[in-house]
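User: C-alpha cells for this complex, please. No commentary.
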Amino acid sequence: MMGLFEAAWVIARRDFIATVYSRTFVIFLLMPAFLFGMTLAAGQAGQRADREAQQAQVALVADSQVVASLQQARAALVANTSDLSFPKLITVAPAEHPDIQARALLADESAAYSAVFTGTLDRPVLTGPAKIDDSVGRRMRLILDQARTTAALSDARIAVPPVSFERVLTAEAAGNLHGVRHLMARGAQLIIFMITVLLATMMVTNLIEEKSNKVIEILAASAPLDSVFLGKLIATLAVSLLGIALWAGVLGGLYLFTQVLSDWIDVPVAPAIGWPIFIILTFLYFTTNFLLLGAIFLSVGAQASSVKEIQTISMPITIAQVMFLLLAGTVVSASGGLLPWVAYLFPLSSPLSMMALAVQSESLWPHLLALLWQFLWVAIFVRIASVMFRQTVMKSGGKVSLFPTLRSNKT
Amino acid sequence: MGLAIEARGLVKSFDGKEAVKGIDIAVPEGSIYGILGPNGAGKTTTLRMLLGIIEPDRGTRTLLGHERPLEAARIVGYLPEERGLYPAMTTKEAIAFMGALRGLPLDVGRKRAEILLRENGLADYVEKPIKSLSKGMAQTIQLFGTIVHKPKLVVLDEPFSGLDAINQGRLESLIRDEAASGTTIIFSTHVIHHAERLCERIAIIAAGRIRFEGLVSEARDRLRPQVRLKTRSADGPWRAALPADAREAAGVWQFELPKSGIEPLLKGLMDGGAGIEELSIERPGLHDAFVAIAGEAAAREMDQPSPTELGVAA
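Assistant:
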C-alpha cells in the first residue's frame, strides 16, 4: 500500500497543478486586489458623500463686517482641520425683520439651512431646532470665538505668530503602540479568516466536481480516503501560499522600486514577538486554520451532490466560523478572564487567537504548545472527514474505525 | 496455482436492503474470470467490496494474499463501471496519474503511457485533452491507466459497456494479452458472449446470490448436448429410439442426447429404418447454461442495457 503521505502527495500535486493552470487561480489572484480596490474606492467615496450630505449649512444674515469676520475665522479653523469639519456659511442679505427672515429661511427646503445666524459678534443669535446644538451650535461657537479673539487681538494691536513645535523624535510611544497592535491583531485575524473561507469553499467545489465526474471512485480504490482528503487540503494550501507569495512579491516590488507605497507599508510598530517570528507564525497559523476549517468543509461539503447544495450546507459552517472569529477577537479586546482561554484552547478559534497573542506578547513557548495542539486536531478532523465520507457517500458500512492503528494494536 | 481473490460469505446491505447475500468467490491466479449477472444483481457491489472501496457488513475477502485490499493497491488495477477522468488532463498525463496513484513514478508512467498509446495506434492522441475524446476513446484511455503500472490483478467493472464493436474487439485483445503475461483478470458483464469468449471461470450472480461458480465448461456441462435430427421416414419403429421429451418442428427433431450416449441412439434409428438425412450434436452455449442456472427472467434482463450505457448516473 502507498503510504498516507505518498498518496496524499500524488493527489496534492495533481490538484495543485490543475488549479494553478486554471482560470480559477487567476480569479483567486485578482480577487483580493479587486475587492481591496472596490472597498477602498467605495469606502472613500461613500464616506465623503455621507459627510458632505451631513455637512450643515448656516445662513449668515448680518452686516458685511460680521460676515467677513466669521468667514475669515472659519477659514482659519479649516486650515488646521478640514472643510467638512465646519458648517458651510452662506451669506444672505438681511431683510427688515430678521426673526421673520430667519424662520422663512429655515422653512425653505430648496436652501436646506440647518440654522440661521443673526446679530453681531458680541450679541450673536442662532436660530434653529434644539437638536443642532451639539453639532452646528458647538462649531458655530468655535467660529465665533475665533472671530472675536482675532478682533480683540487686532484692537489691542497684538500679533500672535503661528505656533510651531520643537519636535523631539522618539522611536515609539506606548499609547500609539497599543493602538496599532490592536489594529494589527484584528487585521491579521480578519485576513486569515477571509482567505480560509474562500479557499475552503474552492476546495469543496473541487471535490464535488470529482464526485460528479466519478474520479473519486478511482481515488478511493487506489489510496486511503485520509490521503485523498489530506492531498486536497495540502494542494489548496499550497495554491493559497503561492497566491500570497505572488501578492507579497508584487507589493514588495512596488515598495522597493517605486516607493509609492512606502508610507503605507512602513509600519513603524513591530509585533511584540518581532517581525521574523511573527511572519513564520502567521504562515503556521494560517496553515493550521486552513487545515482545520478545510477538513470540516470537506467532511460536510462532501455530503453535497452539487455546487448549489454546497452553498446551503456551508452557510452554517461559515456562520459558525464567524462566531469563532468573534471568539478569537476576545483575545484582542478582553483584558483577562475565562473567554480568552476558551479562545486559545478551542481548536477552531485557537489559530486566530494565537495570532493575536503573537502581536501582543513576546512569549514564544505558548505558540509551540498551541501548534502541537492544533496539528493534533487537524489529524482528528481529517480522520473524521474520511470516515464520514466512507460511511455516508461511499455507502460503506462495516467496521470503519476512527483510529485503525489503535484498534489493530489492541487486537 | 494460488488464488488471486478469495471471498467468503460477503454480505452488504444498503438502507436496510440486502444487495449482496453471502457471496463466495475464488479466482485463480493468472485466470480470466467473469462475473455474469443482470443489472442490479450485485456485481458492482461485490467488486467494490473485493477492492475495499466499501466494507462488507459480513464476510471475509483476501486480495493477492492481503486481508486489507488497499494493502495490495500497488499491484491491482481497477476500471470502475462509471468512468472517471479529469477532463482537462491530456491522455498521457491521465494515464500517468492513474499509475502514480498505484505507486508508479510519474516519469515512468508518462513513458509507458506513450508506449501504450502508440502500440494501440493512438499516437496522435498523446497530448490530446480528455475532454476532446469520444466516450469510447476516453474509456480506452482509462483502461490504459488501469494497467499502466503492470498490476498482477486487473478488476474491470462492465468494461464493454458503451464501446463500439471496434473498441470491444480491441479490449478483448488487450484482456487476452494481459492474461497471457500472467495477470489475473476479473470482470463483470451482463453480456454473456464476452464471458463465453474470454473466461475460463465464471460466477453467475442473480439477486445478490451466486448461482454458479466454476469453469465455463462445467456450466455448459450442466445441460446435456442437444441432438437435431432430420429423417426421410416420417414414422416407423425408429421413433421408439427417441427420448420421451423429443420435440418435432418442421420435420426436425430436437432432444437432449440420452445418457446412454450416441451409439445406442444411432443403432435404434438405423435398425428402425429412420433414413437419417441430417444429424447434429450441439454442445449447449453459455447462454443456455445461464438460462438453466439463473432462470428465464434473469436471462431476459441480461439483454437490457446497463444504467451506464443509458447514460444514467447511479
